[in-house]
Amino acid sequence: MPRPKLSSPDQPLVLRLLLQLYELLASLKLAVVVIGLSAVVLAWATFVEMNYGAEAVRFGVYRTWWFSLLISLLGLNVFCAALIRFPWQKHQTGFVVTHLGILVLLVGCFVTRLGGVDAQLPVFEGHVGHVAYQNTQHFELEIVQGGATGRRVTVPFSSGPFNWSEYGRLFFFPWRLTRCDRGVLYDRHGIRLEVLDYLRDSRLRPAGPLRLRVRRAGSAGQPRGRSSTGQWTSVELNVRLIEAQAGVHSSMVLGDQQRLPGGEAVSYSVAVDGLETRAFLESQPTGPVEGMGLVVLCVAGQRFELGVDQLARGPQRLGATGVGVELVAASPQGIQLRLTRPAEGKEGSEAGGGSGATSLFLLADSPHFNHYDRRHGVYGTLWAPPAAEGRSGRDDSPAEAPRSHYPRVDILQGSDGRLYYRVWRPPRVEAMGRLKGDGRPVEIFGRSGRPLRLVVEDYQRHDLPGWRVEPVPSRQRRKGVQTRRARVRLTVDGHVEEFWLQGMGMDVLPFPPELDQLYSVPGQGRVVKCMLRWDTIDVGFGIYLHQFRRKLDPGTDQASHYSSLVDLRARPDPQQVLPGGAKVLIDLNQPKSFRDPITGRTYRLYQEAFRGPWKPGDVVYERMMQEERPREQLFMSILTVNYDPGRGLKYLGSLLIVAGIGIIFYMRAYFFRPRGARPGEQRDGQTEVSAELESTQRA
Fold this sequence. Notes:
5-stranded mixed sheet; 5 domains; 6-stranded antiparallel sheet; alpha+beta; 34 strands; 699 residues; 11 helices
């Protein structure tokens, strides 16, 4: 189809350049280049999807800036090619309709990309769900100051579908062109968040033990530098993470302890965050331990000293933190404390088993077995007087007072990966410091006249108590059980911490964050808690799951078919069933559409997956069935929530393209052929010239 030429040499330079640019954008040459390049990219994207999956091709191709630029250039070419031929003639109807259909289709795709939703909505049987989890994530910084939770900061985070260390080894695509949020993501008000590394899937490997060598040094009466002839004693200490049935969040960090031939003990533990490290370094009493003993508590980075005698008289308030502490029980081995704080709603009650109440267990001779309230950043140390002193004789004590029976050395791997030690000889702490791993000995118990020399022989840093983090290669990635982790450097008021942060899953399970899903960094009078969460969307209505139905393949435990029987309920009244939303069956490959009465959006719900079953006695079952009638088993259904605002435009555009092609074929074949021409002939300039030449030759 001939295209009019707009520019001419007699026009002003600026106008001529603009018209030439307009002609270039409308040219067939540009269309051939853009369409050919788009075909190459789409073919390339097919290979990427075959090798790395749909998520990879969305991240590396379809949602990139350069692909958007390419498609925008295609749309601009189509638009200019149609506009430059205005006013259109009747025989151009099919051409115009086809180009209009392409533009409508491209606009629909952009509308879907900008406002579409594709998320997962989990819901338990007998419960209502309204929050859907998207496939994008963010960091959440929670600032705690003066014991009260302040503002929350949300930091968007784009990570990509692979481990960051793999991008240089992946084929089929220049992944460096894609956007990954590396480096500094947030730097305001004394808080700096940096992402150093990211693992799309990871696993834990056992970390090696701490190996020490200990030897009796020369006594205090011997000349300096002269030592006894004692042999070196090897000490090997491990740290374990004991997981409860509910998961790592209910686990305990169990350190290790070994008695030396001289009666002293060496204990070892691993800190899970900077608050525990600070609590260890600030645990030294200000004076000798007397009476029934002394408790040093660190609450969100603030230090408090409380005598066991004082605690025995009744509950105590810890300054402006709002935390109260009460002595529950005491024995020669240790004490149990109850911490109370203002009610924190459902999340707080789930974590503490009551209205904001948690427990601490502090042991006199075995601090490596202490049980802390890590979620709220509460750590403590019990210092007890020597056992030889006997009871204090108080009649109002709740139980027998705790006692220390032998001196010991406590070693802690701090959150910075360094080893710290403190030397306890009742009734005082003799020394505290850093234990270096360069083979140089450290002398301890020097004041007692029986000094020891301690040397670090072998040490492997723990990323998590008892474990090291290891990436899972993309080719070995597990389905459905991926554990994403980010290596984060968080700076608060000049205090720097580096740590692996595990991404949180769907928060529908009734448990607080796991041990490595929440990390606390102390600052000056405040604490910043960091979490990695999925982005969520409130769909605007509630989905009540009456029953989840599952059929198994004969002789196996594999599900062959499953579906969900749900109600569509209004919010904020979860008992009101919306019109047309009563007992709707959502089946595999049979989605149902629901309309949000607030926003007017129409969501399509697909049956995607499920979890369970949980049975009576399981932690999840007991937590979720507290207010429900008993069931034989409990399921959680996972529904896909899809909202495509550009679906109508894409359907309309596709219909217009088909209609335009049909019009072109029909009108050229029957309406616009020359008179007397055969039905297969076309009417264009070249055909007319050929006909004239043929008639001339005949004449």
